[in-house]
TrEMBL record:
Domain of life: Bacteria
PANTHER family: ASPARTATE--AMMONIA LIGASE
TM region(s), chain numbering: none
Protein name: Aspartate--ammonia ligase
EC number: 6.3.1.1
Length: 336
């Protein structure tokens, strides 16, 4: 368990006021985000059959919560880690056309998560996916999409300030772009997390690009990424410098999705070539799925960021070790 306790923390809002702000942020942001990005809200599964290959492997080591159901004997059902692959399949299945897309409320359980101020075993995010042309699989498309998302977040900050002026946490006006290799070149002796803290503090808001492949110096990835959804050369994380905790805060992981060539390469790099036999992977390698860009935006993390909260448990109800609950309560951090 890792926990940061800010000195003289003031939550600004009572629990009931915080709940009101959470509802306002979640309802308002999803409407504005969907409109700005041209996305339709869709229903999504909380669990999928293991045999489909649709569940997200995250870093490749986290185990999903799974169970068996009476109606499908012999089949393992997994609670989703995210909907990264399901969304791309859904765009084909529901007949979405060029530059059309979807977003959905995604609720997941990540039982192997290391708990701290930012991380919970309960994950809630807006998962989104949009059809693009093959020739739009470029860094320019990625950056343009990041700037659009950042514009919506900045507008949301203004909306929250109008209703809860005493609580809003102010964000930088612009987002900057940097690659993981540039971070390693600049700070070769620091860990990836330490590099992210450094660059986030310097710029305030950063889109950290190219996550998953080997770095030139360490010959290790900056961070793990599943090999079968993001193209490691066209992905990244939206990261803020978060003053209340004196650390970086990641809000979104996103990217242009793998094409056939990138899928082959990344599965080989990850020693996961056996996944090519799964139905989703077969469809992709056979050219049956659209080219897409997509990602996830943390709902609780966005609430935490905009309201200046010290712990994600102040904006979502989850399960925490009693030691963490006691330490937080003593520091005026009220976990839901």
């Amino acid at each position: 368990m890792s926990l940061i306790i800010p000195k003289d923390y003031d939550p600004k809002l009572s629990i009931r006021e915080t709940e009101e702000a959470i509802r306002y942020i979640r309802e308002t942001f999803q409407d504005e985000f969907g409109k700005e990005m041209g996305l339709q809200r869709m229903s999504a599964p909380m669990f999928v059959e293991k045999s489909t290959g649709l569940n997200d492997d995250l870093n490749g080591v986290e185990g999903p919560v799974s169970f068996e159901m009476k109606g499908l004997p012999g089949e393992t059902i997994e609670i989703v880690h995210s909907l990264a692959k399901w969304k791309r399949y859904a765009l084909k299945r529901y007949g979405f056309g060029m530059h059309e897309g979807l977003y959905t409320n995604m609720n997941a359980i990540r039982k192997d998560e290391d708990l701290d101020n930012y991380h919970s075993i309960y994950v809630d995010q807006w998962d989104w996916e949009k059809v693009i042309a093959k020739e739009e699989r470029t860094e320019a498309t990625l950056k343009e999409t990041v700037r659009t998302i950042y514009k919506v977040i900045k507008h949301m900050e203004h909306e929250v300030w109008y209703k809860f002026p005493q609580a809003v946490h102010h964000l930088p006006d612009e987002i900057h772009f940097v690659t993981t290799q540039e971070l390693e070149d600049r700070w070769p002796d620091l860990t990836p997390d330490e590099r992210e803290d450094k660059i986030a503090k310097e710029y305030g808001a950063v889109f950290l690009m190219k996550i998953g492949d080997m770095l030139e110096g360490s010959q290790e990835p900056h961070d793990g990424r599943a090999p079968d959804y993001d193209d490691w050369s066209l992905n990244g994380d939206i990261i803020f410098w978060y003053e209340p905790l004196q650390r970086k805060l990641e809000i979104s992981s996103m990217g242009i999705r793998v094409d056939e060539k990138a899928m082959e390469y990344q599965l080989k790099q990850a020693d996961q070539e056996q996944r090519k036999e799964l139905p989703f992977h077969q469809m992709l390698l056979n050219g049956e799925l659209p080219y897409t860009i997509g990602g996830g935006i943390g709902q609780s993390r966005l609430c935490m960021l905009l309201l200046g909260k010290a712990h994600v448990g102040e904006v979502q109800a989850s399960v925490w070790p009693q030691e963490m609950i006691d330490q937080c309560e003593a520091a005026n951090i009220h976990l839901l």
